[in-house]
């Protein structure tokens, strides 16, 4: 199995598209960091003056605007936090910092998922389109092992790109922004407290792995069954970006809570913006696990039982 994976890894990196995706990722990170640094405006006023202005502005917004309770509560929270800063002499983060720039790496996980999906979608279908499937199946190795090596390679590539993503963002962030100064605060149950920036970042990152995993499995399933990388990539990306709209349209039906699109984004449990009312983390993980099994079973059945001659 290890040799099969090594072989798939070498084949992958012999493709120009693989290097292109890596370079694009690095270019996006460096470019975004450079733009942020270049266009960042250095605040010359002291932070106390700014906080006092924020308090006055937020009070005026609450008074003059006919807003709902949720919006009014938000602006009141900002007032409370600003008043707490002034009372305890706690400066806010003034400029972009290493920690704030690292948040960009989590947002880029969707971008990285796209690259992993491209690999997963074409890793089987390309063998048929190029005719190399004949040579591959002449080896004294079961089809199950061959397909498993391709599946593992898809995840390995995705994980490799995630590591590159976080590493490059960290390097660029340290070079351009440094550690920075100031403390980020939030209001929790009426109590002002310091935000655990790194804890929130880590939580958001591992929750994002839900969409990362199910997207790769779905693309691999479509590519294996229909032998079309274009269909697999297009359909996976369409469902990823339009999933929220689809779920909202179907949310009035009881079966909507069993659609994997409603559970792929596990960060909804961190933000509190639950797509389907009544959904829980346990339900989401269960639904995703069931669909993962379905995608895998269909992929292996199709590759093992159907005519695979080119």
Automatic annotation (TrEMBL):
The keyword Metal-binding does not apply. Keywords: Membrane, Transmembrane, Transmembrane helix. The chain crosses the membrane at residues 20-39, 108-130, 151-177, 205-226, 238-261, 281-303. It comes from the Bacteria. Pfam families: ABC2_membrane_2. This is ABC transporter permease. The lineage of its organism: Bacteria, Bacillati, Bacillota, Bacilli, Bacillales.
């Amino acid at each position: 199995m290890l040799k099969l994976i090594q072989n798939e890894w070498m084949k992958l990196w012999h493709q120009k598209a693989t290097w292109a995706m890596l370079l694009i990722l690095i270019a996006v990170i460096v470019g975004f960091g450079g733009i942020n640094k270049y266009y960042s405006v250095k605040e010359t006023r002291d932070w106390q003056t700014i906080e006092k202005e924020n308090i006055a502005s937020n009070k005026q917004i609450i008074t003059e605007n006919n807003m709902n309770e949720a919006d009014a509560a938000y602006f009141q929270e900002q007032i409370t936090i600003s008043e707490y800063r002034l009372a305890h002499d706690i400066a806010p983060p003034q400029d972009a910092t290493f920690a704030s720039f690292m948040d960009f790496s989590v947002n880029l996980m969707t971008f990285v998922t796209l690259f992993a999906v491209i690999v997963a979608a074409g890793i089987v279908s390309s063998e048929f389109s190029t005719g190399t499937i004949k040579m591959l199946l002449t080896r004294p190795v079961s089809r199950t092992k061959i397909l498993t090596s391709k599946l593992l390679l898809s995840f390995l590539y995705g994980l490799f790109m995630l590591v590159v993503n976080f590493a490059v963002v960290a390097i660029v962030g340290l070079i351009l922004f440094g550690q920075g100064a100031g403390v980020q605060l939030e209001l929790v149950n009426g109590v002002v407290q310091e935000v655990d920036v790194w804890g929130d970042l880590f939580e958001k990152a591992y929750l994002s792995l839900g969409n990362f995993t199910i997207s790769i499995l779905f693309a691999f399933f479509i590519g294996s069954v229909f032998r079309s990388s274009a269909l697999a990539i297009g359909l996976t990306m369409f469902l990823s970006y339009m999933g929220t709209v689809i779920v909202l349209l179907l949310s009035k039906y009881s079966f909507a809570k069993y659609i994997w699109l409603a559970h792929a984004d596990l960060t909804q449990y961190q933000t509190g913006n639950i797509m389907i009312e009544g959904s829980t983390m346990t339900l989401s993980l269960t639904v995703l696990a069931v669909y993962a099994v379905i995608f895998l079973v269909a992929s292996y059945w199709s590759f093992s039982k159907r005519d695979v001659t080119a």
